[in-house]
Automatic annotation (TrEMBL):
GO terms for cellular component: cytosol; protein-DNA complex. This is Two-component system, OmpR family, response regulator QseB. It comes from Oryzomicrobium terrae. InterPro entries: CheY-like_superfamily, OmpR/PhoB-type_DNA-bd, Sig_transdc_resp-reg_receiver, WalR-like, WH-like_DNA-bd_sf. The lineage of its organism: Bacteria, Pseudomonadati, Pseudomonadota, Betaproteobacteria, Rhodocyclales. The gene is qseB. One of its GO terms (molecular function) is phosphorelay response regulator activity. PROSITE patterns: OMPR_PHOB, RESPONSE_REGULATORY.
Amino acid sequence: MRLLLVEDDLLLGDGLCAGLNHYGFQVDWVRSVAAALSALATDTYAGLVLDLGLPDGDGTAVLDAARNGKAGTGGNSAVPVLLLTARDAKEDKLRAFAAGADDYVVKPVDLDELAARLRALIRRSHGRAVPRIVAGRVAFDPEARQAYLDEAPVDLSGRELAILELLLERLGRVVSRPQLEAALYRWGEGVESNAIEVHIHHLRKKLGTDFIQTRRGLGYLVEKP
């Protein structure tokens, strides 16, 4: 899943990117309000991790833009927003929740806790009460990053897990090739022309040839059971 991280502290931002990537997230990292607004206007994210104290303004401007569709951020109006900030005053928290924040975490943060909170926010945004996703013979545990076929663990690469997770999060809906690429690759990462097709091929070999359906000219989907 692809996240937008808005954090101006270089050391913390670098650590968060590396740590969240370890938990299966693809992270685009920006350091200002202006860059965050630009990112939200051009890309769609599964979650937003937002600092409040930014060099060109307050992070609540980004939250307001996301929630109200300002500055062309329409595709991200419902994105789960976790505020990660050094501000621990009750008034700051109340203002943030009133503005539409979904969670509020005071620095310093434990990476295990941060990843768990993000997964819970994203899960609820998709209308799921439990972490495990099941589609026929296939199951996926996002917390453990483990796929199962008939309850037997299946060894998948990181890219394969990311594709499977996105398709299962959108059961019954077609996911386009550009959407899959956006979820798999961060800014600046090269994408080979047939990379998605290769990953889909490997998933079919491991999970069943009919598990992932192709819709010519549209993309891929996993049918609802």
